[in-house]
Amino acid sequence: MSKVRVLAGTRKGAFILTSDGKREKWSVDGPHFGGWEIYHVKGSPVDPNRLYASQTSAWFGQIIQRSDDGGRTWFQPGTKPGEPTRTPEGMPMGESNKFVYDTSPGTGRPLTTHQWYDGSQHPWEFKRVWHLEPSLTDPDTVYAGVEDAALFRTTDGGKTWRELAGLRGHGTGPQWSPGAGGMGLHTILLDERNRDRMYVAISAAGVFRSDDAGKAWRPVNRGLVSQYIPDPNAEVGHCVHHVAMHRSRPEVLFMQKHWDVTRSDNGGESWREISGNLPTDFGFVIDVHAHEPETVYVVPIKSDSEHYPPEGKLRVYRSRAGGNEWEALTKGLPQRDCYVNVLRDAMAVDSLDPCGVYFGTTGGQVYASADAGDSWAPIVRDLPGVLSVEVQVLK
Amino acid sequence: MIRVALPYHLRTLARVGAEVSLDIEGPVTQRAILDALETRYPMLAGTIRDHVTRRRRPFLRFFACGEDLSFESPDSPLPDTVASGEEPFLIVGAIAGG
User: Fold this and answer.
1) What CA–CA distance (Å, rounded) separates A327 from A277?
2) B52: contact with A, CB 8 A cutoff
3) CA distances from A44 to A143, A271, A317, B35 (A)
């Protein structure tokens, strides 16, 4: 029988939750890296035991951790080519935490400022890695979305990281500005059919697409409307919270924006709103059913300042029609006195049938549904605030 | 031997105890200590000072002999008692948020 492994990043460490394919009984392993913020943990699609974790701290900066055995042991992968990965005393070597913006004229235009909250220009300052996206074909290649927004890539298993400077350098960078949570590049989508195509999303700038494997980029935000920016239809400046795609239809994108749930059927060339009957179209997460490309999940959150579920009821909303018509999924979820949030990277779906859906809350619960959202149960209730959730199905 | 006291999270990262001992040739300065520390424990590079600017990270301070040395020049000689190992060089994380 298949095994399911959920990777939860929290405010105070990483946790690995495992079950068999029934997804009824779970074991909880952790915390790994206790006391550190773990923004994201994700496994390689081609080598599921190869995991990467973003470990970060306002005090001590950024660390990248890697596991080659499914999370049992971890190490910092950074070491120079040809050198041992451990010191003679057994210490892990390396500088896998080195993320330095590329300002060289040869690989991209030197770009040193973006728009600050007050409209002035502000220097680009590296703060942390928000999202790690392993390559679809090579376990040693991983993309990292960082704050202040930029895209980095490693091709040596996390030892060294280089910026794909064409994103920041394509021209609109000085118009990007931080959202309330910072100016993070939080979404990286790789196109399984066209290996040269990838998307990233940034708060608050929008969605950007590359058709040459990350060298050149352009904004793809036409159709988005954001009333909270000077030009609601601007090319950039939209506070995109998350974007999801189904692997079989990579040209179709679903977006949870600051306000509005939207979709694009043409690789981001144009977007249209699909909020429909949602109780509020504010929220953070969005994901797509593993086997039904028109089945989409969101968790509506009240307003852009309160950041908790409407009426104190935690409800996942599912559309089986690709948007506009949504049904509330409540069975097993708290329907009174619930004031948690579900952050942008804290929902995932597994590939089993029926599709499993998982999400984590700022209150430390990780909920799982083994029936595509019809019913829910907590895997664990009292973790630190959950920042990210990913899931793997192991054969 | 120079004694360096690390905050909890850097101890766990480097897998060491509360203090580490370092050999330093030449003048004992903040820069010399941090260079030696990062050479001995490469995983600490970037955690105490920025990779590029080499500036102290904002939430960390340096103390020795009861004095805050955070704003001293990184190339100023440290007290003799630090150079002799009688007193540790303290890398301290700010107590913030509580």
Assistant:
1) 9
2) yes
3) 11, 30, 29, 35
User: Looking at beta carbons, which residues of chain A come within 8 Å of B94?
Assistant: 59
| B13 neighbourhood in chain A, CB within 8 Å | 60, 63
Superfamily of domain B2-93 in CATH is: Beta-grasp domain (3.10.20.30)
The CATH number for A258's domain is 2.130.10.10
β-pairing, A13-20 vs A27-32, is antiparallel
Rounded CA gap, B52 and A97, in Å? 12
Positions of E strands within A58-193: 61-67, 113-115, 121-123, 128-134, 142-147, 150-154, 162-163, 185-190
Residues A325 and A277: beta-carbon distance below 8 Å: yes
- Tell me the chain A residues in contact with residue B10 when contact means C-beta distances shorter than 8 Å: 60
- CB count within 10 Å of CB B76 equals 11
Tokens of A237: 């400046």
Domain enclosing residue A41, as ranges: 3-7+29-394
| Residue-wise pLDDT tens digits, A296-310 | 999 999 977 899 999
Instruction: Give the pLDDT confidence score for residue B6 in this predicted structure.
Output: 97
Q: Is A100 on the interface with B (CB under 8 A)?
A: yes
